[in-house]
Design goal:
Order of helices and strands: HEHEEHHEEEHEHEEEEHEHEEHHHHH
Strand order of the largest sheet: 2-5-6-8-7
Number of domains: 2
Structural class: alpha+beta
């Protein structure tokens, strides 16, 4: 039986569930590297001294900063990449990290989940069938905030590239991928799915070597607590000197201590898995099915049932009814979600919110879009 929660706790859990669904959907496309052929426009070169400057420029104007030449000066190479590059630098992600950080050595599942919602988390992806691989470049200490790069295995081998090498890149094109991050989520839709695409080895100069930056393998854990199916994030920061066995032992310890002997759903390292996971790669998550139904859809149905229905659903409605008392704002949100506002049965804000939430619950995918949208508009909804 689910323990009693406050409306604010239920909403915070619903937001976590929303981002779990977003994580699964974006993990499923993380290895898709087909570029969008925008046709190189003549533009001045963006010279980048730090990843924070790069991402602030990109996120401030995502539509007009795609398909541009970029030069990087003395960035450190990693073969791990952020799960959604750029998310780390978004305003909402930064607020979440600041709010939750308190210096603990090991965070409980709620704390771990908050950090991943704040942009922490990295994948190591196998080269695609065409021999293209994804890597990351950083000036700071952590890969989660870095800039992704696509480079061929041929160039990688010819230059003897490896994590920790310091590279200078000259006029490498920042190109959009054909497959975008999931556009239905406000929290990631303005983050372009783009990479620095190295076309020729002359664009890459190895200028030194320094300690490889830290990276954060992560996963989603599914477990049963109080007879209720639950989902949380787990990650660990890894620095040079940490052995793979130490990392594997940490994930197993966490699964047993905090995950109630649950199971990890996705693997951040399909090349050489750190732990057992139900889906070892984005490809497996995309293709796994039971009969006519894909596993990804089944997982999302389970998450929605756990976090959006029953008493939690009633708590969410109670919180939103207190927070949204303006018909114009409710109509704006409803229109953005695709709800036919002409069908509102009442002009009373509380009644409209109730009707909108009912529609979102009954329309697959809309409840998580509602939660994500409202949180972006009113971050204070996540405060206790």
């Amino acid at each position: 039986m689910l323990p009693a929660l406050s409306p604010a706790q239920s909403f915070a859990d619903a937001y976590k569930a929303t981002r779990v669904i977003e994580t699964l959907e974006n993990y499923a496309v993380a290895d898709q590297l087909d570029t969008s052929l925008a046709g190189g426009r003549a533009q001045s070169v963006m010279n980048v001294a730090h990843e924070s400057d790069f991402w602030r420029t990109i996120l401030a104007n995502p539509d007009n900063t795609a398909d541009i030449p970029v030069s990087l000066n003395q960035f450190t190479l990693s073969d791990w990449v952020p799960r959604v590059p750029g998310l780390f630098w978004s305003g909402n992600a930064t607020r979440i990290r600041i709010r939750v950080a308190d210096g603990r050595a090991i965070y409980d599942p709620f704390g771990k989940s908050q950090f991943v919602l704040g942009g922490i988390g990295t994948n190591l992806l196998a080269p695609d069938p065409g021999g293209q691989r994804v890597a990351c470049l950083v000036r700071g200490r952590d890969v989660s905030g870095g800039i992704p790069m696509v480079i061929s295995n041929r160039i990688w081998r010819r230059l003897s590239l490896e994590p920790g090498l310091v590279l200078t890149l000259t006029e490498v094109w920042w190109q959009l991928m054909t497959e975008e991050w999931q556009q239905r989520f406000d929290s990631v839709k303005d983050i372009p799915r783009a990479y620095l695409c190295v076309d020729d080895e002359s664009q890459v100069q190895v200028v030194g070597k320094r300690e490889a930056p830290g990276y954060q393998p992560y996963s989603l854990i599914e477990y049963v607590k109080d007879d209720v199916l639950q989902y949380d994030y787990v990650f660990r920061t890894i620095y040079p000197g940490d052995s793979r066995q130490e990392v594997a032992d940490f994930f197993e310890m966490y699964r047993m201590r905090y995950g109630y002997n649950g199971r990890y759903l996705i693997s951040p390292d399909p090349v050489s898995p750190l732990f057992d996971a139900v889906y070892s790669s984005p490809l497996q998550l995309r293709q796994a099915r039971s009969g006519a139904q894909f596993h990804l859809e089944l997982l999302k149905e389970n998450i929605r049932e756990t976090y959006f229905g029953g008493t939690r659903g009633a708590d969410i409605l109670s919180l939103l009814s207190r927070s949204y008392r303006d018909t114009a704002n409710i109509n704006m949100v409803a229109t953005q979600l695709g709800f036919p506002t002409g069908t509102f049965a009442s002009s009373v804000p509380a009644d409209q919110i109730a009707q909108l939430v009912d529609w979102c619950v009954d329309t697959p995918g809309k409840m998580e879009e509602l939660i994500d949208k409202l949180t972006g508009k009113q971050p204070e909804l996540l405060l206790p």
